[in-house]
Amino acid sequence: MLARLFAVFCLFIGSSAAQNSTALVDYDSQVRPIFAAKCFSCHSQEKRSGGLSLFAYEDVLNGGRTGGTVRPGKSADSLLMMRVSGETQPRMPLIGTPLTDSEIGLVRSWIDQGARRTPSSPPAKGKWEAPLTLEKPSVPGILWPAWSSPLDRFTSAYLKANGIAEPELVSDRVFARRVYLDVWGLLPSPKELHEFLKDRSPQKREKLVAKLLADPKNYAENWISYWNDLLRNDEGVNYHNETASRKSISNWLLTALENNLPYDQFVYKLLNPAAPTDPAGFLIGVNWRGVVSASQTPAMQAAQNTAQIFLGINLKCNSCHDSFISKWKLKDAYSLAGYFSTEEKLQLFRCDVAQDQYASPAFLYPVLNRTPPSGSVPDRRSTAAAIFTDPRNGRLSRTIVNRMWQRLFGRGIVENPDEMDGEPFSPELLDWLASDFVESRYDMKHLLATILSSRTYQMASVASQSESPKQYVFRGPEVRRVTAEEFADAIGALTGEWHVYQEPPPEPEAKKPDPANPVKPGDPPKPEQDPPFVPPKPGVYSREWRVASTSLTRALGRPIRDQVYSVRDNQPTTLQALELVNGEPLTHWLTRGSKKILGELPPEPTPVFDRPSPKKALAPFAIDISHANKIWLLVADTGSYSPEKVEAIWASAELVGKDKVTPLSSLKPLDESGLRSSTNPIVVKGANGIGVRVKTPSRLVYDISGKGYITLRGLVGFENLDAGSDINPNLRFFVFLTEPNVERLTPVLPEMPVAADKVEKSPAKIVDRLFWYTLDRAPTPEEKQTALAVLADADRKKRASADGLADLLWAILMKPEFQLIY
Amino acid sequence: MNREEKLIHARMSRRGFMGTTASATLAALAGSEPQLLRGSTPAPNATADSIIVIWMAGGMAQTETWDPKRYTPFEPGVRTDQVLSTFPAINTAVDNIKISQGLERVAKVMDRATLIRTFQAADLGFILHSRHQYHWHTGYIPPQPMAVPHLGAVVTKILGPRNDTVPPFVAIGQNLEIGAESAALKSFHTAGFLGTEYGPFLIADPADASAAVRPPAELGDARFHSRRKLYEQLLKDEPVYQYGGDFQRQSLLRSMDAADRLLTSPSAKAFDLSLEPKKSFDVYNNGRFGQACLLARRLVEAGARYIEVTTEYIPFRYWDSHESGHERAEMMKRQIDAPVAQLILDLEERGLLNRTLVVLASEFGRDAITEGKVGKEVKDQAKTPDVMTLPKHYGMHRHFTAAGSVVMFGGGTKRGFLYGKTADERPCTTIENPVPVEDLHASIYRALGIPPDYSFVFEKRPVYVTKDAKGKAIQDLFT
Predict the structure, then answer these.
(1) Looking at residue B207, what is its pLDDT?
(2) What is the pLDDT of residue A433?
């Protein structure tokens, strides 16, 4: 907003030249000399006391660590004036003679006249200062008929003001790919895409957005990765802290996304996890065993993370000392931490040195501050939650709106989503979206629908710009790259070959400590008995988010979530390319995937016996083998430190016939390489001395056809039950009655995240489907010819070669056209 | 092309494509990549171009290796607090340096070594190996509010690769997927905020190293090449209209080229240990670690910048002896003696030792009694009887942070030089010239020509290569 108020002063100046009463103050000849004489010794460009230089005009307007020094048109509100007048202490200059009354008057006039560069310049625009509260801006008029939604009216006004004509919108196929990926993280299937392309109804794009948002599962399983990055949530990552061990919030998070939990309630629960199913892990943070720096206690992590994630404020610097680059002080971080700490009053530590200063809970913005009703942990947390979600806290809504915009457009309305004091390219657009979001009761899907249904979102994509924020002009969504999860899930959807998620076994109940036999720290836990056996659940085909990271997904940008990740590093690198070009995980996945498409994967029979090894004793089994010709006995290693030292056994193993019992050890397996030496009887409690000693891993096959056996029975486990902690035996025993598939020993439920297509054998149809699925278009004649040549199987006319298909899949996945989202 | 396509083309080619190096990324041009800042200290002259870190993971017992004390043989009934070393000392090629029995071959090359006996790990409370390893490898103690980079990533970022046909940063011997502390290991095997371009090229098993640069077995050479050709053909067949001067597209294509170059260059042969003459191979071939040392030498010859070779950390295994320390130390010394000695001799023979810094180190030392440091003891982690009755009691089983040994060779360091003094009686604490992590790092950086206050800017703050820029290079270690 251009401030047009200025006053004309007639100044009576002692030693300076007299001013014409209507002339504007000249910065160069009148103001700057004052700064030079009285301020430069500390506020030079080199020294920058308080982060402030007064050397150049731009420096003056840029201000210092605490923000703008000069508010053009408002001398009374300008820190510069408050300092030189002594209204704000300490008075400036700190050393040397203060400004004279006439000098002060001159500077005041200059500011009130707009702090102009020269008398003929327009009034200056002050440094951007992010407001705290939210006021809904009025919506501009309609400029271009199709751009009639409020969001579009703001954008069209902005574009026009920047000399940009009404933009073309992207085609249906580009739109469909974008919006499927943005809402579901999945590519549109050819069927879905064709349906959309054929649809002639008006507002079909808005309808598609609504349809996609209405699916709770696909939506949640996409957005959970984004929130895992932001909330530092991961499974199975643990740094052995004894009192504040990392805790997953995945279940709560997934449910919250599935139910579209309103954002204010979402934040409230994270900051005040009072109920047992609430996400306590967020406030616990990431803790290592041992002593920690005062700046990284769980409460301080909570202060840093809540400020960064929900308010776009960086409190990391001022967790050790007063910030050198912003206005935040050490006390601010501790005061915020006070809402989340175990103690109510926190002693300040400056660079890990205890200070004689204490902080009580207090919020960063005094106007929103609330004192907790008591010093109890629940009261302090609920107070923090109330403060963050206070309707007057415009930063909460602006920050999340900006994050969503950044995710969908590649660059936020404020460039850095973690620094919401930055200048938005359109403050009105941001504030309107934030107000609308609040009015919708913090409905995340409403926010997404508003953006995704707009013409703005449908603009053609542009390359990302490298100009600094001052010169940035929004020209449309940036070209983005698929995330690691989108890449992986694309392979799952294309081939039907998904990862299998295995729910971890339930934690054995903690044993009560025995005072007569204290557990020494560092001792591995040694229960006297195995916990009661709970059969493992079958695996579930799963999207990438649910499984642990692999070298492939880490290379593609899935972060180690020890820190908050607002924006992923998605840039192509050599190591990443090595993984894509030469990595075993991707190669193998595509090998299996191509066979799956062709229906050529070997069958995956279910075991008739499947048991993780007990650790303190042996476990019995008895299997009906009356209809079997062969039996397969497998031992799989599931995480032993030294598999070669584990002494696995099939103890007391016997084949029971109608009137005979044959020890298994008296039969010769078809392949003996899995056996360990068998010279001595097996001596383990509960076993009868006979049995078969095997290696870990091992596979024994016995031919029992025509022998008339009915049952196979025995005990599984390992002989060296007192194995040292350096072996850490972890085994799983299987018995199969048909040839097992070593890649899929454990059963998997048949449901898939994306319904599998029927098996396709025709090369031409395969090529078409592939191109439509990955690139949203038909192959060109040249592409089709190239692809068919690769798929041609020398031995089987009219049937596709699995190797060729794997290669074709790979080549397409490597194309920038696939990896980039236009 | 239709109107939309014309529009996309116009938008894309507007920015044009500026020729950049193979490793340039969009972030670099966008200016959001961490910037390098020179510190106020002038850059020292580099005396090394490459560095090999020989990482003795698990806490290498210094009185059983490089800092032998009074020897007490095992006898049932011997008091634990009387046992300082379970091996006698042997002479080396340097008059005033004795090391532990079991390192006879290295003893012969100690006249090329600088031996530091006074490395001091930080006091971090209840000891967790991986936390100290994190500290040693990044200079920072976790948890940290930003993802700090591994020493190898820092070196690679500042100095750049030596050539574009060998990964500049290679880490050999550590399987990151096993053990209770695997997540912790992953957390520092990273380039952190420097970006994945500078991350480690991981080889868990050196015998498989050549597999890391050859196509996966199920793919095979023929298909590896034919599918690359297919990819290029598809790019040619693409409808031309969509992707004019698109920077991101170019970035992706360039990274594929860089990977290809790495995989098909003659330098990839460095990974193939079977190409080493048998006589030489046999000296190294006493196990995985030995082979890894050979691989490190070959990679330095081929142009790698930072190579780390480890005996591997798995809780309670290898150097991390919580019992039977004597037996374990004997085994470990056997593992390292010939390969380390040969590595030094080979580098010297090839004229590489002067410009290659070799650093053999561990996260802390060991003692039979003290866990931590005297005066800063921490929770015991090994049951230690007052009197040894069984062989499994014989050895150094506790984690000792007051002293540890670091052996450096080449790269401008002195020859046959001893630095630092530890007490001859228990506790064998550092009594002269302590070397904390930041000073060790500063010394390493000094050899590579990097001042200790060099910094990156991340989230608007400087991140120094030594914490708070406080590292001080120990000039005494250098000629």
Answers:
(1) 86
(2) 98
Calculate how close chain B gets to A563, using CA atoms only, in Å.
6
CA distance A400 to A311: 8
Q: Is the pLDDT of residue A615 over 60?
A: yes
Q: Would you call B234 and A240 a contact, using CB atoms and an 8 Å cutoff?
A: no
- In this complex, do A290 and B315 lie within 8 Å of one another by their Cβ atoms? no
Tell me the average pLDDT across A15-22.
46
pLDDT at A641 over 80: no
- Number of residues that this document lists for chain A: 822
Higher pLDDT, B247 or B387: B387
- Tell me how far apart the alpha carbons of residues B452 and B467 are, in angstroms, rounded to a whole number: 9
Contact status, residue B443 vs residue B394, Cβ threshold 8 Å: no
| Contact between A116 and A122 (Cβ < 8 Å) | yes
For B413, the token pair is 């360091």
Pick A296's closest partner by Cβ from B143, B248, B249.
Answer: B143
Residue B127, SS3 per DSSP: coil
What gap in Å lies between CA B454 and CA B435, rounded to an integer? 20
Residue B273: left if φ>0, alpha if ψ -120 to 50, beta else—which one? alpha
What is the value of pTM for the model shown?
0.90
Q: What DSSP state is assigned to residue A320?
A: T
Three-state DSSP class for A581?
A: helix
As a whole number, mean pLDDT of residues B15-32 equals 29
Contacts with B146 from chain A: Cβ below 8 Å: 316, 563
Question: A365 vs B250, which has greater pLDDT?
Answer: A365
Distance between B54 CA and the closest CA of chain A, angstroms: 22
| DSSP at B198 | G
| Contacts B460 to A, Cβ<8 Å | 314, 325
User: Residue A438 carries which side chain, given as an amino acid letter?
Assistant: V
When scoring A575, A580, A771, A820 by the number of chain B Cβ atoms within 10 A, the one with the most, hence best to mutate, is A575
What digits encode the pLDDT tens for the residues A124-135?
988 899 999 999
| Separation of alpha carbons A19 and A21, rounded Å | 6
| Three-class SS state of B361 | strand
Q: Write the CA distances from A445 to A215, A260, A327, integer angstroms.
A: 11, 7, 35
Q: Please tell me the predicted confidence (pLDDT) of residue A754.
A: 95
Residue A516: the pLDDT is 58
* Lowest mean pLDDT across A19-28, A74-83, B62-71: A19-28
Min Cα distance B335 → chain A (Å) is 18
Query: B160-177 pLDDT, tens per residue?
Result: 999 988 999 999 999 998
pLDDT at A570: 84
Is the pLDDT reported for residue B333 higher than 50? yes
| Contact in structure between A2 and A123 (CB atoms under 8 Å) | yes
What DSSP letter does each residue of A464-523 carry, written as one string?
A: PP-S-GGG----SPBPEE--HHHHHHHHHHHHS--EEE-PPPPPPPPPPP-TTSPPPTTS
Mean pLDDT along residues A610-627? 91
Instruction: Count how many Cα atoms sit within 13 Å of the Cα of residue B459 in the half-sphere of its side chain.
Output: 24
- Judge whether residue A15 has pLDDT over 70: no
The four Cα atoms B276, B280, B286, B290 give a dihedral, to 10 degrees, of -70
How many CA atoms, within 13 angstroms, populate the side-chain half-sphere of residue B311? 29
H-type alpha helices, B18-150: 26-30, 104-108, 129-138
How close does chain B come to A433, measured CA to CA in Å?
Answer: 27
Which residues 6+ apart lie within 8 Å of A307 measured at CB?
Answer: A313, A314, A315, A336, A364
- Tell me: cis bond preceding B143? Omega within 30 of 0 counts: yes
Consecutive H or E run containing B36: strand B35-37
B248–A573 CB contact, under 8 Å: no
What average pLDDT score do residues B357-373 get? 96
